[in-house]
Design goal:
11 helices, Alkaline Phosphatase, subunit A, globular, 4-stranded antiparallel β-sheet, 9-stranded mixed β-sheet
């Protein structure tokens, strides 16, 4: 071994020390930059309740249902007063959320597979039966920005081959069946969690448990989690202890709506929301997590094929007109609460008209991601509203297209600032015009008084339908006024025998 002087060896050790320090410094800078990048990308949790009405929780005016955790979420975030579901029923709005598009572009304009009235005045268009796989979903765009993605609950955008695991979700926990223990199940999937429902476990309890686990498992990287409970959709079902509480409250008040079981279901949902918020806090992620709470359409007053001797009334949208399945305010105006401490001022409120497909560009912008190049995004980012940097969006109108019979007739609608026009497309030519700032309950149709505004809004609505390729009803050569009221089943091709229904299935279970 060649001789090296102590001086040379000391200099060599010193040189290697400098190299080591430089390497360590660079490594730390890379790690810090990586951590800063992750910190700049918020975790996003979208809680997407089914059929929850605009006034069915405390912070939106209910003095009957107890929703302390949802109300607290509103106190800690921003409450939107004029937020709208993109559709009057579930599948269209779900399509809008996943695609960032008005669902009329894709053709998912009814819940899949939809209802059928074969003897009505018009033949309604067939709805697309699944979200196309070439649609770039919000989950796929967020995955491109480095997010882990998870889906829990109801999907209703297509069967096998079209489930969340095929649409950008790393974890896919699709749950089918109603609320009470033993009546729902986790759908088999290569990306489903191993966790199965426990004996006696209510559905929102199970959905909360899966959500908590996902948050724990992904606390070290940005994640997007969509939680879509079947609550508060019919058939009604809740645990008896809660139901008895609301029965007692209803008796004391002499009130018949909301239904005590429905009220109990909302409280179950409130507890699920609380557990998700607490799981975020326990993981130390509160300052890095955006929590969004909303509904897929307005609340349900009663079934579309209602028979007084068969079904219970569920809730009332008063003072709003209409319900689920209608383009009146009660069918499409829904709650929206957004909590994200670094951006949103606690206790704030926003009255700007906004809609479900606005989530897509909002989430992607906050994630630092990119919107799809070859896919039209109809939504507008809500970040200027959330940050209070602007009082309104650069958009004047929202549009709806529901060319189906359900709780109302086939119709399209446009809201342009304070003015709202509903055009019935069932061959009658009927139109309704409302000034929402003065008439939130849509009690006075101003169409006859303001023909100029009607003509202007009809022209704009027609132009919009043409741009998006909205499918329209056509005259029915088999129209029979005496049978027009008949409902037929899309799957079986047979009449719906509403009179044979006894009641909803049992609505409660003893949890004591």
């Amino acid at each position: 071994m060649p001789f090296r002087s102590p001086l040379f060896q000391n200099r060599l050790r010193g040189a290697w020390g400098v190299v080591g320090i430089v390497w360590l410094t660079l490594t730390c800078q890379v790690l810090i930059a990586s951590n800063d990048a992750n910190a700049a990308q918020p975790n996003i949790i979208l809680i997407f309740v089914d059929d929850l009405g605009w006034k069915d929780v405390g912070c939106y005016g209910s003095d009957f249902v107890e929703t302390p955790r949802i109300d607290r979420l509103a106190r800690e975030g921003m409450r939107f007063t004029d937020f709208y579901a993109a559709g009057a029923v579930c599948s269209p709005t779900r399509c809008a959320v996943q695609s960032g598009q008005n669902q009329a572009r894709i053709g998912i304009t009814a819940h899949i597979p939809g209802h059928w009235r074969p003897f009505e005045r018009v033949i309604t268009p067939q709805t697309t039966m699944a979200l196309p796989l070439d649609t770039v979903t919000v989950a796929e765009s967020l995955k491109g920005a480095g997010y882990a993605t998870g889906y829990i609950g109801k999907w209703h955008l297509g069967g096998p081959g079209y489930q969340p695991e095929h649409q950008g979700y790393d974890m896919s926990a699709v749950i089918n069946g109603p609320h009470l223990p033993g009546r729902y199940q986790l759908q088999a999937s290569p990306r489903a969690p191993a966790q199965k429902p426990r004996d006696g476990q209510y559905r929102t309890d199970y959905e909360a448990e899966l959500s908590e686990q996902f948050i724990r498992d992904h606390r070290e990287r940005p994640f997007f989690l969509m939680v879509s409970p079947f609550a508060v959709h019919i058939p009604l079902g809740a645990m008896s202890e809660k139901v008895e509480k609301y029965r007692a409250k209803a008796k004391q008040r002499g009130a018949d709506l909301p239904h005590p079981v429905y009220a109990a279901m909302i409280e179950h949902t409130d507890e699920m929301v609380g557990r998700i918020v607490d799981a975020v806090a326990e993981a130390g992620l509160t300052e890095r997590t955006m929590i969004v709470f909303t509904s897929d359409n307005g609340g349900l007053y009663r079934r579309y094929d209602y028979r007084p001797e068969a079904d219970d009334n569920v809730t009332s949208m008063a003072p709003l007109k209409g319900e689920k399945g209608s383009l009146h305010e009660g069918g499409v105006r829904v709650p929206l609460i957004v909590k994200y401490p670094p951006l949103v001022q606690a206790g704030s409120q926003c009255a700007e008209p906004t809609i479900s497909y606005d989530f897509y560009p909002t989430f992607v912008e906050l994630a630092g991601g990119s919107l799809p190049v070859k896919q039209t995004i109809d939504g507008a980012s809500l970040t200027p509203l959330l940050s209070a940097s602007a009082p309104r969006l650069q958009r004047n109108a929202l549009h709806w297209h529901y060319p189906h019979y359900h709780h109302d007739r086939p119709a399209s609608s446009i809201r342009e600032r304070d003015w709202k026009l509903i055009e019935y497309i069932d061959g009658t030519g009927d139109v309704e015009l409302y000034q929402l700032s003065a008439d939130l309950g849509e009690t006075k149709n101003l169409a006859a008084e303001k023909p100029g505004r009607v003509a202007d809004l009809k022209r704009k609505l027609t132009s919009w339908r043409q741009r998006v390729g909205a499918r329209m009803p056509i005259p029915n050569p088999g129209y029979d006024a005496n049978r027009a009221h008949e409902w037929w089943n899309m799957r079986s091709g047979q009449p719906v025998d509403s009179d044979s229904r006894k009641r909803f299935p049992p609505t409660e279970l003893d949890d004591r």
